[in-house]
TrEMBL record:
This is GTP cyclohydrolase 1 type 2 homolog. A divalent metal cation binds at H94, H95, D133, H260, E264. One of its GO terms (molecular function) is metal ion binding. Residues 1-26 are annotated as: Disordered. Belongs to the GTP cyclohydrolase I type 2/NIF3 family.
Length: 306
């Protein structure tokens, strides 16, 4: 028998003793594009998307390996360049690249140039849009969490294939403590990703805000839902002059209009975390501001007295 050390292990340097065997872990094979698509489809089933929407795998070889994923709001030349520089194998985008029909993807066209750059760089593209909007958790859950809202429920409960389990467009919640509209607007501007647009508000600046509805992305089609929910304020994006004015004149909730990109950017952190937890991939969220508005100046002209 070989000599043993006091703790019962074979003593090193003795005849017949076993040399320490280095512990090596078996390399984990990266998932394929098809595996990542399957995981995303389970979380955001394509059947939940609106009929007009275009979601799912846009381009990419299903068998290609995926080691790095970049999550973006918009698949635009700038985020494609970011993905290529980061060595990403897959982009997960919120907004569809090919929402409306095109007759050509020649590299001389805007969308065609993006398609060619992705294919040349070996980067697949996947889209989760309105199916991620209605999901629970989904786009508006991430927005509500960024604002610190509690006790969430859907603003417009989902119908059809997505119905049930708290799914729907937007979220309604309450603030931890009441704030004036002025203070809540400042809070939202501080909590949302920074943009040139910022956050603008309509309503009495001193109005007390306790309950809030939010909807990531364009939300003025949900003004009536916000009124019906009985909330004190509604935060969304892309509010138009006439609908907003009529809503406020009718005594509806105060309105906060944030940058479209800023209301959807928080969701990227959630989907990136989901991918890291579900698969052996390095998934990150892009902080590249793809909002089209790049400058904002408050009007400085003195108002005329009439």
């Amino acid at each position: 028998m070989t000599a043993a050390s006091p703790d019962g292990r074979n003593a090193p340097g003795r005849a017949g003793s076993l040399a320490a065997v280095p512990q090596t872990s078996t390399p984990v094979a990266p998932p394929a594009v098809a595996d990542v698509v399957a995981a995303l489809d389970r979380r955001y089933p394509p059947r939940w998307a609106q009929e007009w929407d275009r979601v799912g795998l846009v381009l990419g070889e299903p068998a290609a390996p995926v080691r790095r994923v970049l999550c973006v709001v918009d698949c635009v030349p700038e985020t494609v360049a970011e993905a290529l520089a980061a060595g990403a194998d897959l982009i997960v985008a919120h907004h569809p690249l090919l929402l409306r029909g095109v007759s050509s993807v020649a590299p001389t066209t805007y969308q065609g140039r993006i398609v060619h750059d992705l294919i040349r760089g070996g980067v697949a593209l996947y889209v989760a849009h309105t199916n991620a909007d209605v999901a629970a958790p989904g786009v508006s859950d991430a927005l509500a969490a960024r604002l610190g809202l509690r006790d969430l429920r859907p603003l417009a409960p989902a119908e059809g294939p997505a119905a049930g389990d708290g799914r729907g467009i937007g979220r309604v919640g309450r603030l931890p403590a009441p704030l004036s509209l002025r203070a809540f607007t400042a809070h939202a501007a501080a909590r949302l990703p920074a943009t040139s647009w910022g956050v603008r508000a309509g309503g009495d600046p001193d109005r007390v805000i306790r309950t809030v509805a939010v909807s990531g992305g364009a939300g003025d089609s949900y003004l009536a839902a916000a009124r019906a929910a009985g909330v004190d304020a509604f935060l969304t994006a892309d509010l138009r002059h006439h609908p907003a004015g009529a809503h406020l004149a009718a005594g509806g909730p105060a309105l906060l209009d944030a940058a479209h990109w800023a209301t959807e950017r928080p969701w990227l952190d959630d989907v990136a975390a989901f991918l890291r937890d579900s698969l052996p991939v390095a998934a990150t969220a892009s902080d590249l501001d793809t909002d089209p508005w790049t400058l904002h100046h408050a009007s400085t002209a003195a108002k005329e007295n009439s």
